[in-house]
Specification:
Distance between the termini: 69 Å
Protein name: GOLD domain-containing protein
GO cellular component, one term: endoplasmic reticulum membrane
Strand content: 35-45%
Family: Belongs to the EMP24/GP25L family.
Number of strands: 11
Structural class: alpha+beta
Oligomer: single chain
Membrane topology: Single-pass type I membrane protein
Largest sheet: 6 strands, mixed
Order of helices and strands: EEEEEEEEEEEHH
Number of helices: 2
Subcellular location: Endoplasmic reticulum membrane; Membrane
């Protein structure tokens, strides 16, 4: 699902996908694109990207020049910036979440420094891996000299740990939803009481006003 966010050239993509996914998107010269990813706490995230620049002569996307870079900015659920860095045309970024919730991953190019990109279009291939999908198990097996059975056990332990984090996060979301529902119900109750008091007060005032009117006109 895609939703345009306030501000020129900013598009927010809500990424409710699997813990590991790849996609590509196009951005203009001053455009910024962001992804909202629901991440449990203490979870590692690895992002890899590569860029292609539109070539008018060939009518296709070609690998971008090294001078064209991408700026990556990541905010946690409290809108605190946990990563803000300039990378090259191809890059890799990593971060670990310390608070559960929606994390915003934003990318934009340094196109203002590149006359070659002026008025052009950039294609960005993005691959994001979350949790145990960030582990390079062949490298771990070679480093720790693990057998196939030991490596499989390591993978299962990592998967169980990630499942536990996901369950804790779902409990956290459920608790927040329950607190919001209780707060909303309480506000509705007090608003209903306030409306009832206002109606009663208005009715009593109208009755007294009408009685005074009739007494003044000597109708009662």
């Amino acid at each position: 699902m895609m939703l345009a966010a306030p501000g020129p050239g900013i598009v927010v993509l809500f990424a409710w996908l699997s813990p590991s996914y790849a996609l590509y998107f196009h951005i203009g010269e001053t455009e910024k694109k962001c992804f909202i990813e629901e991440i449990p706490d203490e979870t590692m995230v690895i992002g890899k990207y590569r860029t292609q620049l539109w070539d008018k002569q060939t009518g296709s996307f070609l690998p971008a020049t090294p001078g064209l870079g991408m700026h990556v900015e990541i905010k946690d659920s409290d809108t605190k910036i946990i990563l803000s860095r300039q990378y090259g045309s191809d890059g890799r970024f990593t971060f670990t979440s310390h608070t559960p919730g929606a994390h915003q991953i934003c990318l934009h190019s340094n196109s203002t420094k590149m006359a070659l990109f002026a008025g052009g279009k950039l294609r960005v291939h993005l691959d994001i891996q979350v949790g145990e999908h960030t582990n390079n198990y062949p490298e771990i097996a070679a480093k720790d000299k693990l057998t196939e059975l030991q490596l499989r056990a390591r993978q299962l332990l990592d998967q169980v740990e990630q499942i536990q984090k996901e369950q804790n996060y779902q409990q956290y979301r459920e608790e927040r939803f329950r607190m919001t529902s209780e707060s909303t119900n309480q506000r509705v109750l007090w608003w209903s009481i306030a409306q009832t008091l206002i109606l009663l007060t208005t009715g009593i005032w109208q009755m007294k006003h009408l009685k005074s009117f009739f007494e003044a006109k000597k109708l009662v």
